[in-house]
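Batch job 17 of 40 flagged for manual review because the log was empty.
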Amino acid sequence: MIILGLYTLIFILVPYLLTILLDIIPSLGVLIVIIIGIVMMLSAAAGRNLSRGFSTGLINGTLQGFWYCINWLINTIVRILRWTARMTPRVYRRSRTFFINQCGMSQGLSSVLAFLVSTGMVVVII
């Protein structure tokens, strides 16, 4: 599932978002100038001077938002991998005891089948 999600993200979502971004870019410059003008008018009305450091603050805010999204994505992937690593031994133990107690299988056969079940779970998640 993770591989399918990454495939969808890289080959479907990213090109779609890039085409939308390329359609928006011509009007984006005008929008930024309008926003800067509105902020400067409001700051002049409030009696504050925003001419120093305004552009660097705007760029830093944009980059911080971008890095926040990247870190959120990486942390989500790490949490999914940790969850899978914690869940795998539990699935192995419970399926092994199920095969022994409920199905009446031998220790060796139940261990092999439990290994196959836990491996299949990891493959389905990844």
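Reviewer: the log was empty due to a logging misconfiguration, but the result itself is present. Residues 55 and 61 are 10 Å apart (CA to CA). Unflagging and moving on to job 18.
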